[in-house]
Amino acid sequence: MNPMPRINDPAPDFEAKSTQGIIKLSNYLGKWVVLFSHPADFTPVCSTEFIEFARRQEDFDRLNAQLIGLSIDSVYAHIAWIRNIEQHFNVEIKFPVIADLDMKVAQLYGLIHPNASETATVRAVFIIDDKGKVRAVIYYPMSCGRNMDEILRVVEALQTADKHGVATPANWTAGKDVIIPPPQTQEEAAKRLQQEGCKITDWYFCQKAL
Predict the structure, then answer these.
(1) Which amino acids are annotated catalytic?
(2) 184: CATH
(3) Which of 168, 165, 142, 140 is closest to 155 using CA atoms?
């Protein structure tokens, strides 16, 4: 099995069958991608996640982020499950779901964990930036559903850091102060203490509003 892609690695490209036809990861360059795997179709925790991803579709669209689901079920099972969710929960699932029966994508992304299951992908999220680089990886056990607010928060935090050359503190959400990266030399540290327009706690800890 291939090792799991790590943060700042190029995201492994793939071409795969999905509920929206054949898709290729590299075709999404220019968009952020949220690639998320689930253990199996027609399972209750995964169903709640699909419902919430669908309900938050506009929020992902606003961040130029493409959702892509994945499990090792067939495309027919995916279609049946999606139709069932849409029928029972009054949502529309607009994102593609990869039918990874041969486990090629799961192996590229290290999604089969034998201690969790020999035959199902674990609950994982890969956030891939618009240049095709893995920027964040989040894993969950099979019993724990994902938090959509957190996934959206991470995407927006990464985009904010890229755009403004800053970092984001614990519990950051859009509109809150950001962190200025710490100085790298004694001279920069001395200048930082005199910098205007910042909330300075000490030479290494400075925040500002955007």
Answers:
(1) 46
(2) 3.30.1020.10
(3) 168
